[in-house]
Amino acid sequence: MTNPVTTPADFWNPKFDTSEYIFGKNPNTFLTAVIPSALSGQTAYAPADGEGRNGVYLAQIGYEVTSVDIAEKAVEKARLLAADNGVEINATIGDIMGAPPAEFDVVIVSFMHFRPDDHKRFVEHLIAALKPGGLLAVEGYSLDQLPLQSGGPKSEDMLYTRQKLADDFQALHITLLQDARRILNEGNRHQGEAATIQLVARKAITA
């Protein structure tokens, strides 16, 4: 008899327990288009970074990166990917629902979807993780993803709309909020036509 899945880590660890990088080794292309190269000493945060593809990219363009995931197997692979690419990241096993580990210049989110209660907590976590003036970039699946087969949940309440993200991040200055149709090529789990929502926003600089 197999053991029941009781936590997100129980769900994800077996999926990541392979030599293959199941979401690929290359970063999310939307994030590469909207995140500028770092100025000296700037920091970046990649919550739920999985096998590290986005965190490693941020390190390659000059950020001091904190990469967090709940799955031990994913974090091990993130550390290996960083070493293979000759960069350093602070890849740790951690909670992405409580207080963030610090405040950062850049925070990124790539295809993270939760039930409504957890989604609200995750949004609060992201906003708290931004320094004043900090940049947030988010891409996730929209409702139009439901009939498509390139990944993502099949529950409407876990998918994004522009209005949902506008409401979530109304405390920030939103500079980009759009629907996108694009072809994903991210490992074996994100392949083919996808319907996404893309957001870029900044936290106000307080006096």
3D architecture notes:
Helix 1 packs across helix 4 (72-84). This protein has a seven-stranded mixed β-sheet. The mean pLDDT is 92. Helix 4 links the parallel strand 2 and strand 3. The protein has one domain (23-34, 43-202): Vaccinia Virus protein VP39 (Rossmann fold), CATH 3.40.50.150. The chain has helices spanning 8-16, 29-34, 53-60, 72-84, 116-129, 162-168, and strands at residues 43-47, 64-69, 90-93, 104-110, 130-141, 173-186, 190-202. It is 28% helix and 29% strand. It is globular, with a radius of gyration of 16 Å.
Based on the model shown, name its key terms:
about 210 residues, alpha/beta, Rossmann fold, seven-stranded mixed β-sheet, 6 helices, about 30% helix
Helix content: 25-40%
Query: In CATH's first tier, which class applies?
Result: Alpha Beta
Poorly predicted runs: none
N-end to C-end Cα span: 60 Å
For the record, the count of structural domains works out to 1
- CATH homologous superfamily title: Vaccinia Virus protein VP39
State the gist of this model.
By secondary structure, the protein is an alpha/beta fold.
Secondary-structure blueprint:
Blueprint: H1 8-16, H2 29-34, E1 43-47, H3 53-60, E2 64-69, H4 72-84, E3 90-93, E4 104-110, H5 116-129, E5 130-141, H6 162-168, E6 173-186, E7 190-202
